[in-house]
Every structure is written in C-alpha cells, then in structure tokens.
Amino acid sequence: MSSPVTLDPGGAEWGNRSPYFEAVFDTLVRIRADGAIEPWLATEWSYDDSGTTLSLTLRDDVEFSDGSPLTADVVVQNLERFRDGTAANAALLSGVIDIRATADAAVDIVLDKPNPALLTYLGRDAGVIGSAESFDDEDLATNPVGSGPYIFDAAKTVIGSTYAYQRNPEYWNPEAQHYDELIITVMPDPTAAMNAIKAGEANGVKLVSNTQRAEAESAGWAIAASKVDVQGLYLFDRAGTLTEPLGDVRVRQALNHAIDRQGLIDAVLLGHGTPTTQVFPPSGDAFEASLDERYPYDPEKARELLADAGYPDGLTLQLPMSTALGTTIFTVVQQQLAEVGVIVEFVDVPVTNLISDLLGAKFSASYFALESVDDWWVIESMVAPTAVWNPFRYEDPDATALIDGVREGQDGAAAELNEYLVEEAWFAPFYRAEGAYAVDAKTTVTPMASNTYPSIYDFAPKS
Known about the structure:
Helices cover 26% and strands 23% of the residues. The protein contains 13 helices and 22 strands. A hairpin with a 5-residue loop joins β2 (29-31) and β3 (37-39). The longest helix is centred in the N-terminal third of the chain and has 13 residues, at 72-84.
C-alpha cells in the first residue's frame, strides 16, 4: 500500500489509496461491499428524461470537523475542484458541463451526454466532499478537513509513512464508526507487510502477492479474497506514437499469443486466478466467455505474426517495473516474451511515481492491474478517448461508435465493443487475479465488489 500524493479532496484517489480519504471524508453516495449504491451525503437522486441532469438532495444535518455546514454550494465547489484540478481521475467528471445549487440542500449535475456510471463515480474519489473553508489552507495537502467518521490527526501523522485518524464525536452516522482510532501504515514492501503480520503490528494487511497467503494463514490470519482486478499488459500506445511496433495490430496480437496465462497463474498467483483475454467483467453485458479462448498460448503463432508485421528478428519493448506490482511477474513475463523474440527492457520506477508516469504517457505499455467493476466503468476508465487509463488518448472511430451505442442502451453494443477490442488486441490481459486481504483473529472484513481495497466501513473488530 503506497502513500497518497495529497490529502486535498480535490486530488482524491481511490483503489489502494481509498482508506486515506474514506476515513476523513464522506462521499455523496456510498458503494456497499456488494456493489449496490446507497444514500450517504445525498439522500435522494433522480435523472431527467434525457438522462443528462442528475438532481441530488443533500442531508441537512452534516457539519465538517471545522464546524462549517454541508451545503449545496460546498458540494458544487468540491465537484468543480475535482473536475478542473489535477486529480488522477479528474476525467471521470470530464462530461460534466454544469454543476449548480438549486436550493440550500439540492444540487444539479448536468452532463453533455448520458453517463451510466456517474453515480458510481460519486461514491468514489469524484464524490469526496471536503470543507470549502479549508480550500485556501496552506497545509490542505497534509491536513485535510472533512465530515467523515474520523478526524485527521496531524500530530500523530508522519506524511509518507503513518497516517492517524481519531473518531469524529459529532459524526452524523455513528453506527458506521467501528474504532476510536485508525492508523494506516504505508507498507509498499512485501517483506515489511509480512513482518507486520508475524509481529502482530496490524489488524489488516493487503497482500502484494498470493505467495504470501500461506505464510499469513500460518500466522493465524484469515484471508478475504476477491476478483476485482484484471492484470496483464496494458498496451496504451496503440497508434505507435512512442513505440512504433505497437501501432500494428499483428504485434499486439502476437503479444497475446506469447503469454502462457495458466502458467502465469500457477507460477505467480499459485493458482489463485482465472485466465482471460478481455477486460470487461463476467457480470456485465459485454462479457463473452468464448473470447477467453481467442489467444491461446502459441509462441509459433506469435513469431509468425511478428514476422508478418515486419519484425522477423523480434523487437524491443520498454516496460516500467515497480515493487508495488510484485517481483516474480516481471521475470516470468520477460522470459515468455523473449521466447518469441520480444526483448523486454525494464525501467525501475519508484512506487510514488508509477501512476503519474503511466498517466503521463511515459511508457507505451505496462504490466498493471486495473479494476473491472462494470461495463461502463471499463469504457470510461480504459477505453474511451478521454479515459483515465488511455494516456495516449487513442481513438478508433469504430470503437467510438460502439461506445455511443452502449451509452444509448443499444442491445448488443457492449458485447460487440468487447469483441472488437479483443480482436484488435487493445490489451493483453493475463488473468483475473484473486486479490487477498489478510486480517488477524480479532478482525472481520468484507471485500469490495468494486474496489481492490476493502472499505473502512466493512472493516470491524469481531464482536
């Protein structure tokens, strides 16, 4: 688990960094462990007939820890700061063309076109709400002010290492508070995480690798598992802007055939995963089980495709390497690609720089793990021209037309889009990894269906 870039709500992050923000900030809606959306700061919501205006009714009994009240104007300021700021996921609100207070406790969010995932975004980083009174504070990045279940304890916090939060005595929903104090310790190193487990220095630890599961269980810890991530090679530079060979679909298809997915699951995940060649989740309309057979492990076919593309002697691919993603995977992937003539040159990237480097289009491809929550989430986060994880802003007219079809609710559009992306090899997925979160004997946790890290609301001491 890495430290947050900032604690400013305008720069909020999610994924493995969600606990830092959930502790001190409320979101407009809450996403439960099963993926359902329930009221939180917003008690009611509805769309207009066009599906382009979302109207929210807000709670009128919420105060921030600085004593200032939650109002519609405060929500408007928060949403505008996130959309117009430098948050990693600011593009989630890129389709929002207007945000206005329609009453003291009512807000309208106006879209340029319907967005089926907007409510989901408002239960994540895009919906994090902080005190507007704190926005001009010089120390906002390291001393956040929210209305959440806990108050940030700057005195006990060591930025980049340990983050402390104290129970908020005025919280509007005390049933959601399970602890008097939360301490979130940064543990990006797998060895440090395992040492903390053995020494009993934590109640819960996100395991970097499934290779740690047996060791954690032998220490008396339980494992909560979920399959939210799709892990594999994300081929960002599909136009060949930075790495010319990736602009040829045959090269991208060759990379897919070069990967022994089941071999990777056995070697890296110790069997805790499902092979796949598609990034859409099995629960959605886009998923087609037969597509997982599109790229069987076939080194000879991979070499043939590379030769047809003009690379009979192979090619060189530069990929980032970071301890945040484990270590074994890089060696195995390098070996498998070398067998078909693709020489991988790894570049060490500090954990704190990995996401910014990828989103800054410094690498044409990367081994990575991204959430596969629902169909529209995948489209908006990985596929659309404005998607956060489309750093080269690659656009394909055929894919864009299919995306519009999904937005408009056309039957079969999601499945057709998925099939097109698999055939064009926009990605080279390996597997749906079974993520593991370990808890001690005194703690219970329910993994999220929509996030790689459990919500703090689903983390509690055993009764």
